[in-house]
Write a structure and sequence with these properties.
The complex is a heterodimer of chains A (about 425) and B (about 325). Chain A contains 13 helices and 17 strands. Chain A is α/β, with parallel strands linked by helices. Chain A is globular. The two termini of chain A are about 40 Å apart. With about 325 residues, chain B is mainly α. Chain B is globular, with a radius of gyration of 21 Å. Classes of the chains: A alpha/beta (about 425), B mainly alpha (about 325). β15 (about 320-325) of chain A pairs parallel with β1 (about 1-5) of chain B, so a sheet runs across the interface.
């Protein structure tokens, strides 16, 4: 089998501990905390009051502005609180609605639509009302992405799942291939594209074989070399089409839209099952929790509850631990254990800290060779630390996708990504928010 | 339970600077074996003195002068000491080598800021320093003794290196004195670690397999030497000598495989590394043909070291999604 790929990248230990475990439905949590900002763009505005009864799937936050998304109640219950909640994920306090569950699900469904007859605009409207956002992690509102400013001719489904540990997309492809295909057909219709690809890393050979059989003639399955960051949007496009997304541009600039596997499932659920995005699959994994697994959980479920009830608590013998929203390469460390999960949350990885001390760069050039964006991480690190932001931007500071390959491979344990992220933030702040 | 907040990525390779240095040391074991066979126990003693003194000097600088209480050796000083020892003649007194090691570690490495900060290759700079400070000790050559841990008699005759013969007496005399097979295995006068092409290549292969080396540099370097000498050889064979002769003699193999590939003092990009190798090759041949010294590997690599910041600046990679660099 010919495997597609891109230049650079690394191959960290895969540790897909949960790849053979079926996705289980988590019990309903007694309490959820739903952020008004769990999408790229402007936060949603709460439209319920404290003390109000809400149904499962009822709108509790409405979008504000062009790029924003609806937020729905994940359970049936009573609104207990609407206030700002500190969030490790956002890096600031964000408005959230706390709902105490009083009952089993009493659904408020989305408007019915016959997807074969419905117009493009009608379908996009339902997706918008369903609060669907990109579930790969970026959480970009899907209704905006499916209405690109430029003509699009190719749809690429991202099933690479290159992060170590995470297996939820893998399981979704194996267990819910037919539903994902329905989501793809809806998306294909909306975009009006002919060619549809799905990129899957070769370590998920069972998924490649299954989809090649099941989706034959409808979607081209592109087997990808198992290499991190194969699932990064630009690297995925490069591997499959050979095209490069222009620096500072979007995939639609070269006629391509990329969507995650789980997003396709969410689109299917919104259009066909009339269910808004209030539940998603995620992997709970790592040596830090007693039981690993793939779970379907409600948005807004606190991490503490998940670890206690689904992971059955932390493993014994750990004094310090890292809870990562996402995988170990790009995951965000969560220091407030009651932080709820959000729409883009594809996994919780609970691992121990790896001992490391940064030492002098010895110019081995490993970072330059692994950088998938063809940057010079050692130099970006140096310039960012010396606060020479303009010089750093000139050599591609803003092109960095923060995949962490450079810091992963570095024998001297230099924290390139840390200084690059900080450099980007300071540079953007100094320019008043303009990139 | 304490929840940690550190920056991503949260997994790292098990690799370290020390592992890289150990790999380089392992790769130089064949060269040390060659030195011990061709130049006897004195050569082995020089190797040990070079490595141990370099480590001790670095330890002193880090612990006492730079007051770094937690400093633990990473092996980089041992590499420098070993390379310098391999770059002297067996006739070099131990104290001359010691002066060279002090110069390499204290001046060339640590006054520039220590590990990773030096512009010039410490071992090579020290070698050139010794060459101009102790010209006699550094250019007295003995023929190989061809016995492991053998000792030279006190009335040993000095000999000439192949390149010196070529320079002074022409290629027909040099080709007559040195058979290619001897040159390939290292049976000739010269620095203790530079003579055996085959064993140097063996160590180099280990580094390539381990992914420790910028392969572009030696390829470009040796390729340039071949091309350059082939052109001159076709013009005047007697004066300039054959390409093969140039490839197998002097410090070229040791230089191209182990000194021009030093991570710290070479360019960071493929294009830069190619340019660096070509520059080294041209300079080496110019010095060999037209310079005052018969050999030019050390000087050419050092000269190219000085160009590295410039090369790095002009050979930046094309950023993904941009039209030009």
């Amino acid at each position: 089998m010919k495997l597609l790929s891109f230049k650079g990248g690394v191959h960290p230990p895969e540790k897909k501990l949960t790849k053979d475990l079926e996705i289980k439905k988590a019990p309903l949590p007694p309490k959820v905390v739903v952020f008004m900002l769990q999408h790229a763009g402007a936060p949603a505005k709460p439209v319920v009051q404290v003390g109000q009864q809400v149904k499962t799937g009822q709108v509790i936050g409405e979008p504000q502005g062009m790029i924003s998304a609806y937020v729905h109640s994940p359970v049936t219950g009573v609104v207990k609180d609407i206030s700002k909640v500190n969030s490790s994920l956002h890096g600031m306090a964000v408005e959230a609605i706390t709902i105490e569950r009083t009952d089993d699900d009493d659904w408020e469904l989305l408007p019915a639509v016959d997807y074969e007859k419905a117009s493009r605009e009608e379908l996009i409207d339902i997706i918008k009302k369903g609060g669907v956002v990109g579930l790969g992690g970026a959480m970009f509102p899907t209704h905006v992405k499916l209405n690109p400013a430029k003509p699009v001719n190719t749809l690429i489904i991202n099933g690479a799942e290159c992060e170590p540990y995470l297996t939820i997309d893998h399981r979704v492809m194996l267990e819910r291939a037919d539903e994902v295909l329905q989501g793809i057909e809806i998306t294909r219709k909306i975009l009006g594209v002919k060619s549809v690809y799905i990129g899957i890393e070769y370590n998920k050979k069972d998924a490649i074989n299954l989809l090649q059989k099941k989706w034959d003639g409808k979607v081209t399955v592109a087997p990808l070399r198992t290499k991190y960051p194969q699932g990064a949007e630009k690297q995925l496009i490069k591997a499959i089409t050979g095209k490069e997304v222009p620096s500072g541009g979007l995939p639609s600039d070269i006629g391509i839209v990329v969507q995650n596997v789980s997003t396709m499932l969410a689109i299917k659920e919104a259009i066909i099952d009339r269910k808004p995005l209030i539940e998603r699959g995620m992997t709970l994994t790592g040596e830090g929790v007693k039981e690993n697994g793939n779970w379907s959980v409600r948005i807004g479920t606190p991490i503490s509850w998940i670890i206690e009830n689904l992971g059955k608590g932390f493993s014994d013998g750990f004094e310090e631990i890292k809870i990562l929203m996402g995988g170990p390469m790009m995951g965000i460390p969560i220091s407030l254990i009651d932080t709820p999960i959000v729409k883009g949350n594809n996994g919780l990885t609970v691992i121990r800290q790896q001992e490391r001390n940064s030492t002098n760069c010895i110019r081995c050039s490993y970072c330059v060779f692994v950088c998938p964006m063809n940057l010079q991480p050692y130099l970006l690190d140096l310039l960012s630390r010396k606060k020479k932001y303009d010089d750093a931007v000139a050599i591609g500071l803003l092109d960095c996708i923060e995949c962490g390959s450079c810091s992963y491979i570095c024998p001297a344990n230099v924290e390139h990504v840390k200084s690059i992220k900080l450099g980007k933030k300071v540079y953007t702040a100094l320019r008043g928010g303009k990139k | 339970m304490k929840l940690l907040t550190t920056s991503a990525p949260h997994v790292r390779t098990e690799d370290s600077t020390r592992k890289i240095m150990v790999d380089v040391l392992v790769a130089l074991v064949p060269a040390v074996i060659a030195a011990t066979y061709f130049f006897g126990s004195s050569a082995f003693i020089l190797v040990i003195i070079g490595m141990v003194s370099a480590e001790l000097i670095e330890l002193f600088i880090m612990r006492v002068l730079k007051k770094d209480k937690e400093f633990v050796s990473n092996g980089s000083a041992a590499v420098t000491g070993l390379l310098l020892a391999l770059n002297v003649s067996v006739a070099t007194p131990w104290w001359v080598l010691l002066i060279g090691v002090v110069f390499a570690i204290a001046i060339v490495k640590h006054t520039f800021g220590g590990l990773g900060q030096n512009i010039f290759n410490p071992a090579l700079t020290a070698r050139v320093f010794l060459l101009v400070s102790f010209p006699n000790a550094m250019t007295t050559w003995y023929n190989p003794i061809n016995k492991f841990f053998g000792t030279y008699p006190t009335d040993i005759q000095t000999s000439a290196t192949p390149l010196a013969v070529l320079k002074l007496e022409g290629f027909s005399k040099a080709a007559q004195d040195f058979a290619p097979v001897d040159l390939f295995f290292g049976n000739m006068g010269g620095c203790i670690g530079e003579t055996s092409t085959i064993l140097l290549l063996l160590g180099f292969a280990y580094l390539v397999v381990r992914g420790r080396i910028k392969v572009t540099i030696p390829t470009a370097y040796l390729g340039t030497v071949l091309a350059f000498s082939w052109i001159f050889y076709s013009v005047n064979p007697e004066r300039f000598g054959s390409p093969l002769f140039h490839l197998l003699t002097g410090g070229l193999m040791l230089g191209a495989l182990f000194m021009a590939t030093d991570m710290v003092t070479t360019p960071m990009t493929i294009r830069g590394q190619a340019l660096f190798g070509v520059g080294c090759g041209i300079l080496t041949m110019i010095i060999r043909y037209f310079g005052g010294y018969p050999e030019g590997v050390s000087l050419s690599i050092l000269l190219m070291n000085a160009f590295v910041p410039l090369i790095d600046r002009y050979t930046q990679p094309k950023i993904f999604g941009r039209r030009n660099a």
